[in-house]
Specification:
Distance between the termini: 32 Å
Oligomer: single chain
Largest sheet: 8 strands, mixed
Helix content: 40-55%
Shape: globular
CATH superfamily of the domain at 13-135 and 209-278: Alpha/Beta hydrolase fold, catalytic domain
Number of helices: 11
Number of strands: 8
Strand content: 15-25%
Order of helices and strands: EEEHEHEHEHHHHHEHEHH
CATH class of the domain at 13-135 and 209-278: Alpha Beta
Length: 281
């Protein structure tokens, strides 16, 4: 494992950071007075943030965390809670001596960051919830959610399953224009350990509780970014969730579920404005 450097890096540097959820792969990149800690969605890894850090890395430092069983992070066969993920995110921050930071993520990553904000608000300078489920309910998962959760282990290696996930996550024009990303998406899923990845996906889908009733408890500045064509998480629900946060901001963006891949420049602009207005230097 690489030692943690004294200063931020101008090129991406990878670490295997021990946490209570196993060793998580963390990528550090960029310079700046503020550190942005991000956790990706299920079925993806830190590469969804490549264009974002390329745009903002000259002025901000990033720590990108692959979730358990995703990317190069370890995974097990035991399920875990979103509070467990939040604890692991905090442990990564501890490893980099970060008392507080701008913290967020996409979908699963947003849920994780929100739970860290609820558990330890003093560690959060600002919260960024990108394409984050607000009403996911493990007690009553929908048919599609049950199919994804239960089918992941067995169907992961099939192109049909992977294409179905990709078509839910990304607009057709984005997949067509980003062949390298589409290939990386398929490669990660094909090479993942099915039992470990299934355990992680089932944990997110079947062991989460709705964020909507707790949005009013988020006392930190909160930015909600949502895809206008995201059929999984309707834009009206996302807007309502942002309004419930005491210091909530809402940014609707063209595209489906992974806005940071679909419209990275728009996400970077929204994040830059949010940090400028809400995070004291």
């Amino acid at each position: 494992m690489n030692a943690i450097p004294e200063f931020p890096t101008a090129v991406p540097v990878s670490y295997a950071v021990p946490t209570s959820l196993g060793r998580l792969h963390v990528v550090e990149y960029g310079h700046g007075p503020e550190t942005i800690v991000l956790w990706p969605s299920i079925f993806t890894d830190h590469h969804i943030y490549d264009d974002l850090v390329a745009t903002m890395g000259a002025s901000h430092r990033f720590l990108l965390i692959d979730g358990p069983a995703h990317g190069q992070s370890e995974g097990g066969t035991d399920e875990f809670t979103m509070e467990d993920c939040a604890k692991a995110m905090g442990e990564v921050m501890d490893r980099f001596d970060l008392v507080a930071a701008i913290v967020g993520g996409t979908s699963w990553g947003g849920i994780t960051a929100a739970h860290l904000a609820l558990m330890s608000p003093a560690r959060i300078k600002a919260l960024v919830l990108m394409n984050t489920p607000m009403q996911i309910n493990a007690a009553q998962p929908g048919l599609k959610a049950r199919f994804i959760a239960c089918g992941a282990r067995w169907a992961l290696k099939t192109a049909m399953f992977r294409n179905g996930v990709a078509n839910s996550f990304f607009s057709d024009d984005v997949l067509a224009a980003n062949a390298s990303y589409a290939n990386a998406f398929h490669t990660m899923l094909k090479t993942a350990q099915p039992a470990s990845l299934a355990a992680a996906i089932q944990s997110v889908i079947l062991r989460s509780s709705p964020l909507m009733p707790r949005m009013a408890e988020l006392t930190v500045p909160t930015l909600v970014i949502a895809g206008k064509e995201d059929a999984m998480y309707p834009i009206a629900v996302q807007a309502e969730a942002a309004l419930l946060a005491p210091n909530g901001h809402f940014e609707p963006i063209e595209g489906k579920h992974i806005s940071v891949v679909e419209r990275p420049k728009r996400v970077a602009d929204a994040l830059t404005r949010f940090i400028a207005s809400e995070v004291a230097e």
